[in-house]
Design brief:
binds zinc ion; 9 strands; 326 residues; 11 helices; single chain; alpha/beta
């Protein structure tokens, strides 16, 4: 099987809470060893920035996690490759090798400085989750009281990310912020780890309309395995709830949109999922529920993979037209 996961917190956990333990050993849900059975594996590794950090302390925190991830290319030599493009993913995703994509969860890592978008891009960051649950310089998260949308700075960041070919991630953003992004983005957007609010009423989940807006940008929505987002009775959540949310998104015309955003090592897993080693079983579960091989392949790989291609293509296209003008 091929597995493309739009979000996990494993690297941040290893860097800060597991004493720098290698990604080979990993944290609670994901390790390179436990994923080595996957034929082709692409994994987004997020640097999660705690909401209370601002300015230089947010930058320092980001850089520490980034450097940890860089170091893993040596520590886990031959098994872990940082990818900056779909060409890199083609080259490195294979059995026993993880094609990793670097992301930042929480725009506080920019410290309110627009030039830092490019600095992060140069570091290899290819996705920014604009906010976490609270407010930051870019806008308000979904749990901010009387949440507003994006700030003027947040809007500038989205435009810059479009230009550089970085994926704009609306997971965690407030509803107002979501519509601000939708209005200004020119490139496809993603909710890298968000379930359906129709099936589980939670401000972290997407309304039907939001899902369709992302679908129409030719974006991607990753199903989050978090028990609280899968089921209103979080203790009842099991593997079949992942199918339930997927099926619902498919019913909204999401067959080229829905993918996986596991949130490994960032949340509690539903019954039946212990970590990345359960993904083969999940794949089989889809097949047993009469999903076509083609659809399951799209959910587990193609939709996320093509999304990254479209984000990059968009950036190449606008840069070309700017160069012509210049
Ligand atoms: Zn998250």
């Amino acid at each position: 099987m091929r597995f493309f996961d739009m979000h996990c917190d494993t690297a941040t956990e290893c860097a800060f809470n597991f004493g720098g333990r290698s990604l080979s050993e990993g944290a609670f849900h994901l390790s390179l060893k436990r994923g080595a059975y996957i034929d082709s594996w692409a994994q987004v590794f997020a640097v999660f920035i705690p909401d209370e950090l601002r300015g230089q302390s947010a930058i320092d925190y980001y850089e520490r996690a980034r450097d940890y991830i860089y170091s893993q290319q040596k520590v886990c030599e031959g098994k872990f490759y940082l990818c900056k493009s779909t060409e890199d993913i083609d080259k490195y995703a294979g059995k026993g090798r993880c094609a990793a994509i670097l992301s930042v969860e929480g725009g506080a890592a920019l410290a309110g400085d627009i030039s830092r978008v490019e600095a992060l891009h140069n570091d290899g960051v290819r996705l920014i989750t604009l906010t976490w649950n609270g407010p930051n310089e870019l806008g308000d998260g979904n749990m901010t009281e009387n949440a507003g949308g994006l700030t003027a700075f947040g809007k500038d960041v989205v435009a810059k990310m479009n230009e550089l070919g970085m994926a704009v991630d609306v997971s965690h953003l407030s509803d107002k912020g979501f519509y601000d992004v939708a209005e200004i983005t020119k490139a496809p957007i993603t909710a890298s780890h968000s379930c359906s609010r129709r099936l589980c009423k939670h401000s972290r989940n997407l309304t039907d309309e939001m899902f369709c807006v992302i679908r129409d940008t030719k974006g991607a929505v990753g199903i989050n395995f978090c028990t609280k987002f899968l089921h209103e009775d979080e203790y009842a959540a099991d593997m079949t709830d992942i199918l339930r949310h997927t099926e619902y998104y498919l019913s909204l015309g999401g067959d080229n949109t829905v993918c996986i955003g596991s949130d490994f090592d960032g949340t509690d897993m539903p019954k039946g999922v212990t970590g990345v080693e359960s993904m083969g079983e999940l794949y089989e579960l889809f097949l047993r529920h009469n999903y076509s091989e083609d659809t399951v392949r799209k959910i587990f790989w193609d939709n996320a993979y093509s999304f990254w291609g479209r984000v990059t293509d968009f950036s190449r296209a606008i840069n070309k037209s700017t160069n012509l003008k210049g």
